[in-house]
Amino acid sequence: MRMSDDDNGFTLYATGWGQPGIAVTRPYDGQPTHAGNGHMAAIVVDARAKVDGVHAKAIALGGTCEGPPGVRGDEGDQAFYAACFRDLDGNKLCVFRIGPA
Question: Based on the structure, what is the number of domains in the chain?
């Protein structure tokens, strides 16, 4: 089902919040879509500490930070806690948890 969309061209389809889904969006930097720009894989985990750990490991292995771990939006029962990084091939990945701390 369509879970979310906005005026910036972001649309999310999923079976529920915190479940695997597909988001369609324009590249944030305004550049044409190419490898590593215009798509992102997101991995849901069950604890904020795992978000922190995956991000730290990715950076330690040579990835680059695209957004440090933290709450995006408001804290609360449906808080979106995420971190983003690029792998060595330039692909953007996100690891996240939805829920309170």
Answer: 1
